[in-house]
Structure to design on (770 residues):
């Protein structure tokens, strides 16, 4: 569509963050037993989704590589990590937290390059939370007997951890920090499309002089993850990703003694009552679904608006979306970055097409999409019914489905009418209504008059098909201790 | 001439009522020496599904009752059991072939277990939840909530104490339960259901089936309206694997079987298995 002639109310000069801070090699091996080693499998290319430029080649770990990594983790567990006092383990985790802070700009730029998320998010949200997470769990390492799991809680052993591409480094921190604090060693597989910050993290482990084998990073795609999960030397499996893969992993560990925690998909209701402060609510809706291009499992992807205010709210929302700046993820003014991969872009396009076909009304923000790279403009569907696929399936993109309700009971009914149960949002000025609604939501995280807030002290995880187990807080330790 | 004993018909306990199996089937229950004790109802797939419907219907009301109320109801179960201590001891003795003294010991422990869990109802939120000091102007707290409907396969060895040790921690927090009694030792469970029916436990909160594990458990494991599965009484490893695979279809929370000393202090582990943690954020401001 030709939009070039239309004047913009505000023009910003480009403000790109320099990528000189990142020193990328052309290819990367696997991080096993404290060293980077060549894999025996094939190779994958990691692409900058904003430019389609190949950033680096990474090894695709074979079953033999996985075996080496698991054995290294076992050795490190038996000989070193399980014998070390909690106080000493803590010091390593504090070291890691500090090095993450010291190298924060480098990590943020690399994360934006590899993932496509805006630098203001990787710089101000992802990386600070990563450091905070290591700092928080470092403090638990020598206090486990106070965590409420008995007088002498024991670690599980070797943890196999498989993480997604939407918050590559943050998901790594959510997995590795509590596992190590509790005394486990890990083999972690980053997502196929976003392996680079995990490999930089491996370097941080070397700088911190973490004993070899305590953290092992194996890159690869689905088969690598499946081999890791299925390895008989693994005591614990932790997965964040789609509900479909989570179910497959659950079946794969059935009949074994492997412990499992799953953090899966979501289709959160963001419920707006007629007394909600409109401007704040609009900001909250934007944060709820357009943060990180909507690549967020707890995204507020179903907006439930009280009928009497729906028209005004949606029109104000559209006006606000018109001011969002989509483009170069490394530009400090960018609000909406690139879709992480072509595959994900196709999925978003497909489901949005289904929304059209099923009769919902599509509105798209008026913004130019760069010629190269993977992009999807902020999109709102109105006239959505509960039966529509765009109200039921996780789109995992910048697409909001708007439904309406009349009474609080109807809002509760509609909000809970999903197989998922990860998060929910409530917007109202009335305190008693917030507490009733929060109590009625079948969801693990409820944001009232805010959305998409995260903190290492705050347990995160789902009800129903959004998974089980919690990450964050005291609760997050349970996943890595020998307790049920 | 000796009086002829009035025998009892052992039926299922579903939704607060005592139906026979809809299948019209029963199976012989014998004592440990092989002597006939009774014909127990042989529950079918339909009975299992009816029980899940009853459990689901009762769940919001039970979870919505105050913790104080749930605690009193569980304590009431202990009170009523105490009054029927002799009957339970006889049931357990026949089922498990124990000496009188050991059977009485098991009954006493089962009664005491209800008392122990009764006291937990209004303490769980404080012990398992709390406020979280997030780095920002937000009030943030976490609370435990029941996961929903729990299907439990009761332990095969310990017909009463084991069963109570599985049932009480599931329901104390507000879950409702469908319980499949020990296959060869189901009679104490049915006697317990008579206690539950007269102890202010709302109908549907506990539903007890008798029958074959291999027949009934797969229907419970694959039922899409069951939230969690306790495999305490599944001794067969191939069946255990099959049930876990079926449970994955709707991401059920699964408590695996394992060797458990039912007389030991149970701790909070089984309560925690069937709880969700909900975390709520709200901004702080003026």
């Amino acid at each position: 569509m030709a939009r070039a002639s239309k004047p913009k109310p505000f023009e910003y000069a480009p403000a790109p963050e320099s990528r000189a801070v990142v020193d990328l090699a052309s290819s990367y091996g696997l991080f096993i037993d404290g060293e980077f080693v060549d894999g025996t499998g094939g190779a994958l290319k990691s692409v900058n989704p904003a430019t389609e430029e190949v950033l680096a080649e990474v090894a695709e770990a074979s079953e033999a590589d996985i075996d080496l990594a698991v054995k290294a983790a076992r050795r490190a567990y038996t000989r070193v990590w399980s014998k070390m006092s909690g106080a000493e383990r803590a010091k390593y985790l504090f070291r890691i937290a500090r090095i993450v802070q010291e190298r924060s700009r480098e990590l943020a730029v690399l994360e934006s390059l590899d993932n496509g998320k805006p630098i203001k998010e990787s710089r101000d949200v992802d990386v600070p939370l990563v450091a905070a997470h290591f700092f928080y769990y470092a403090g638990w390492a020598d206090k486990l007997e106070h965590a409420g799991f008995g007088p002498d809680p024991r670690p599980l052993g070797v943890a196999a951890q498989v993480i997604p591409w939407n918050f590559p480094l943050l998901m790594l921190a959510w997995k590795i920090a509590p596992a190590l604090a509790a005394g486990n060693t890990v083999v972690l597989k980053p997502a196929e499309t976003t392996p680079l910050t995990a490999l930089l993290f491996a370097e941080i482990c070397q700088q911190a002089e973490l004993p070899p084998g305590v953290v092992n990073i194996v890159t690869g795609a689905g088969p690598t993850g499946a081999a890791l999960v299925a390895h008989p030397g693994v005591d614990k499996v932790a997965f964040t990703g789609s509900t479909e893969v989570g179910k497959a992993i659950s079946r794969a560990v059935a009949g074994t003694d492997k412990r499992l925690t799953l953090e899966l998909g979501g289709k959160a209701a963001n419920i707006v009552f007629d007394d909600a402060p409109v401007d704040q609510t609009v900001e909250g809706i934007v944060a709820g679904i357009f943060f990180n291009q909507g690549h967020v499992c707890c995204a507020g992807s179903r907006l439930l608006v009280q009928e009497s205010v729906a028209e005004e709210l949606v029109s104000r929302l559209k006006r606000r979306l018109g001011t969002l700046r989509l483009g170069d993820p490394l530009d400090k003014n960018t609000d909406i970055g690139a879709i992480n991969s072509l595959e994900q872009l196709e999925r978003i396009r497909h489901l949005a097409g289904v929304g059209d076909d099923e009769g919902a009304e599509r509105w798209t923000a008026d913004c130019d999409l760069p010629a190269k790279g993977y992009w999807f403009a902020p999109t709102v569907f109105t006239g959505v019914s509960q039966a529509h696929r765009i109200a039921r399936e996780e789109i995992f993109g910048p697409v909001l489905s708007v439904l309406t309700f009349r009474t609080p009971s109807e809002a509760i009914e509609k909000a809970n009418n999903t197989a998922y149960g990860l998060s929910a949002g409530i917007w109202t000025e009335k305190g008693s209504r917030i507490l009733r609604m929060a109590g009625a939501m079948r969801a693990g995280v409820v944001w009232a008059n805010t959305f998409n807030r995260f903190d290492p002290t705050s347990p995160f995880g789902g009800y129903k098909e959004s998974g089980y187990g919690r990450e964050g807080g005291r609760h997050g330790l349970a996943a890595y201790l020998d307790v049920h | 001439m000796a009086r002829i004993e009035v025998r009892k018909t052992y039926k299922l306990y579903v939704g607060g009522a005592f139906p026979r199996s809809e299948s019209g089937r029963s199976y012989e229950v014998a004592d440990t020496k092989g002597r006939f004790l009774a014909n127990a109802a042989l529950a079918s797939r339909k009975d299992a599904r009816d029980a899940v419907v009853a459990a689901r219907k009762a769940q919001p009301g039970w979870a919505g009752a105050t913790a104080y109320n749930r605690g009193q109801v569980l304590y009431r179960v202990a009170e009523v059991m105490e009054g029927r201590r002799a009957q339970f001891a006889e049931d357990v003795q026949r089922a498990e072939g124990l000496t009188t003294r050991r059977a009485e010991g098991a009954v006493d422990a089962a009664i005491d277990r209800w008392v122990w869990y009764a006291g937990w109802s209004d303490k769980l939120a404080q012990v398992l939840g709390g406020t979280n000091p997030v780095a920002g102007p937000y009030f943030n707290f976490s609370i435990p909530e029941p996961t929903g409907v729990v299907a439990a396969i009761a332990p095969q060895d310990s017909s009463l104490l084991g069963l109570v040790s599985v049932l009480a921690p599931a329901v104390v927090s507000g879950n409702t339960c469908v319980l499949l009694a020990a296959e060869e030792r189901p009679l104490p469970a049915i006697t317990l259901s008579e206690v539950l029916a007269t102890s202010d436990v709302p109908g549907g909160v506990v539903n007890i089936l008798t029958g074959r594990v291999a027949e009934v458990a797969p229907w419970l494991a694959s039922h899409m309206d069951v939230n969690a599965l306790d495999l305490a009484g599944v001794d067969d490893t191939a069946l255990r694997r099959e049930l876990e695979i079926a449970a994955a279809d709707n991401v059920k929370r699964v408590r695996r079987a394992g060797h458990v000393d039912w007389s030991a202090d149970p701790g909070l582990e089984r309560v925690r298995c069937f709880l969700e943690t909900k975390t709520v954020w709200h901004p702080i401001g003026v």
Q: What stands out?
A: Residues 12 and 238 of chain B are 27 Å apart (CA to CA). The mean pLDDT of chain B is 97. Chain B has ten helices and ten strands.
